[in-house]
Amino acid sequence: MVVLVAVSVLLGGLVLLIAFLFGRARGESQSESTEDVKINGQTAPEKLFPKKQKLHKLRNEKPQQHTFNHPLLASVLKAHSGNITCLDFSSNGKYLATCSDDRTVRIWTTKDFLDRDHRSLRANVEFDHATHVRFSNDCRAFIVCLANGETLRMYKMTKKDDNITFSASPEDFPKRHKAPIINFGVAETGKFFMSASSDTTILVWNLKGEVLASINTNQMNNAYAAVSPCGRFVASCGFTPDVKVWEVCFAKGGVFREVCRAFDLKGHTAGVCGFAFSNDSSKMATVSKDGTWKMWNTDVEYKKQQDPYLLHTGRWSGKEPCRIALSPDARVIAISSASDITVYNAQTGEVEEEFLSVHGVVITDLAFDTGNRFLVSTGDRAVRLFHNTAGYRAAIADMNDMLKKATNKGTKERLQQQIRDAHKALNAVMKKKN
């Protein structure tokens, strides 16, 4: 009997000892686990589940829109749900087109720019998104460059009872570029359009989608290319420190003849990042990696070997990526540098305005409207419009100089009225600013 009791006590002690050791090991394991989590910058295991729920909630929240305020900010257009990649004004000045990586193109009415509410019409880009958008010369259609398809697609705009509908062409243009398309443009004459890729290729097309000519720019790579507003020239810049300009020539009957070299803009000491034409193509502005921008007179008889001549050289921050815009009257130059914009007097080179951190990302496009009233920029999901006060001031200074030289009474009266109108417009903007 005594033996059985002793055995029972011994077994009970062993059970208690095993339970104690197991509990101690489990506690040490939990402690080590907690230390490991804390060492990695996390909280204790029992708090991990609520943390996962919070992270899941954050992932579902929409990204915050970049906020920007400035006294000269005239309006902000918001409708896109993705970053805007390009903008274009119709030649009649009535519409603004914007495209985005949200797979849509938006058409805005310019007469609504200063209204509180901004309406837009949406065109869906099926199975792709647009990197660039351009209106046709007759403003009855627009063309987009497809990001994934690396080709072009046309949309017709049909207006009926003040409503506009969009219909894509049955087939996209054939893919002809071997490298990504960096820009394209439509000639105001309606005779051709141009597309340029990031290699050294520029293609000249007719509106049926047939390639009329291929240009090798011979400049290592193309940084930018465009069609002049007059519809005669195609220009390109890139690795080399110059801008090359070609004329697209047609016979009297409208039949394509050839593409011939017109002139070059030479004077920069490093690669040219971009350029812009004035509305009548008589002036050009260029911006270079050498930290300078230049203003040129391109109204020359190049067939008689007359070269464009330099009007002015100014300096900019040199911070890339950058874009340059020239006002329609060639009085004002705007240069975007990353997400900042600086506005210059094109004749004196003086800085007129500075807008910092305009967009939450790098500025993707920059342009003046056809009426010379606004400077417009895109980058994130918003289009921002600034009053062109520098343009008003430059116009007043120019017209005062012309008034001093005028001898005809009618000319003097016309200039005086234009000066009064410009002062009135400037005063209205400055009143709102203050």
Automatic annotation (TrEMBL):
Repeat region (WD), residues: 77-108, 174-208, 265-297
Domain of life: Eukaryota
Coiled coil start-end: none
Keyword annotations from UniProtKB, A to Z: Repeat, Signal, WD repeat
Signal peptide boundaries: 1-27
GO CC field: endoplasmic reticulum
One GO BP: endoplasmic reticulum unfolded protein response
PANTHER family noted in UniProt: TRANSDUCIN BETA-LIKE PROTEIN 2
Protein name, UniProt field: Transducin beta-like protein 2
Annotated organism of origin: Leptobrachium leishanense
